[in-house]
Write a structure and sequence with these properties.
Layout: E1 4-5, H1 8-28, E2 34-40, H2 44-59, E3 63-69, H3 75-87, E4 93-96, H4 106-111, H5 124-132, H6 144-154, E5 164-168, H7 175-182, E6 190-194, H8 201-206, E7 210-213, E8 231-234, E9 237-241, E10 248-252, E11 264-266, H9 272-291
Parallel strand pairs: 1-11, 2-3, 2-4, 5-6, 5-7, 7-8, 8-11
Antiparallel strand pairs: 9-10
Length: 294
């Protein structure tokens, strides 16, 4: 058996093409969806990631707003920027790029974001609304990466209803939030949340129809622990220095041999990563549509 590859680049391209049409429709009404980023400091990886987001959003006709602050900026200076974006009608959604410098109170800054403009979908208010909403249509921003995982499966005609999903990892970005989406009645999956402290992780993995590996632990999911035909989504990232080249190498949470056992497999990179950016832009376009009363 060789797994069917869940191509995140192709699925993200399809989403962006659909978003371009929605952005064009908003522009006809005189509304230009605006996405903003706040970057504190000059971390090269963060600069690259932020730049990529703006390049992709501009390509589909969105307004791109970049705010860059020096690493020594005070709490008050960063919060003033947040307040400005909250009040700016041309900004429909934004993110604060993490990590922030250690002298800043990250939680206080993130909680200061207007929940309606929370492009990441991780504001406590929006997560709380998601907890309370099992059946009704969702009218608040959703967590981007969990939404990207689910969308990647659905766009490959994978039916999650009734499936046993095992999530590996308990971070807020994915692990703690994805179960809220998967257990909504419209998806109707059963979710087990595991992590590095789980006793006999392999037992849980072998029972899973779907594995979402998001622990950030190199090759924590091995071929011998995967049910034949299962769908495996490799989300976590580990960076190690290659002793031969001295360069950083990126490893996923899923061992390459899993491709010989799984029925579906998302690559890393090229799987969930592109979906996260596409769903980030989706959150902003949806916020612009809501602001326009659509």
């Amino acid at each position: 058996m060789t797994a069917t590859i869940l191509d995140g680049k192709a699925a993200a391209a399809a989403i962006k093409a659909e978003l371009a049409e929605r952005v064009a429709a908003l522009r006809e009404r005189g509304i230009v969806p605006g996405i903003a980023t706040v970057l504190v400091g000059a971390d090269p990886a963060s600069q690259l990631y932020v730049g990529m987001k703006h390049k992709q959003s501009e390509a589909i006709g969105m307004n791109s707003i970049q705010v860059e602050l020096p690493a020594e900026s005070t709490q008050q200076e960063v919060e003033a920027v947040i307040d400005g974006l909250n009040a700016d009608p041309s900004c429909h959604g934004y993110i604060v790029q993490l990590p922030l410098p250690k002298h800043l109170d990250t939680d206080a800054i993130l909680e200061r974001i207007d929940p309606a403009k929370d492009a990441d979908g991780l504001h406590p208010t929006n997560l709380g609304r998601l907890v309370l909403n099992v059946n009704a249509p969702i009218t608040t921003p959703l967590p981007c990466t969990p939404r990207g995982v689910i969308e990647l499966l659905l766009r490959n005609d994978y039916d999650l209803k009734g499936k046993e999903v095992v999530v590996v990892g308990r971070g807020v970005t994915i692990g703690r939030s994805i179960g809220l989406l998967l257990t909504r009645r419209e998806i109707n999956a059963t979710v087990t949340l595991t992590h590095t402290g789980t006793v006999d992780l392999a037992k849980h993995l072998r029972e899973a129809d779907v594995i979402v590996a998001a622990a950030g632990v190199k090759h924590i999911v091995r071929a011998e622990d995967v049910k034949p035909g299962a769908a495996v989504l490799d989300v976590g990232v580990t960076r190690e220095v290659d002793p031969e080249t001295g360069k950083n190498r990126v490893y996923g949470d899923v061992h390459p041999d899993v491709a010989d056992v799984a029925g579906f497999l998302s690559p890393n990179p090229g799987g969930v990563g592109p979906m996260t950016v596409a769903l980030l832009m989706t959150n902003v376009v949806e916020a612009a549509e809501r602001a326009a009363g659509l």
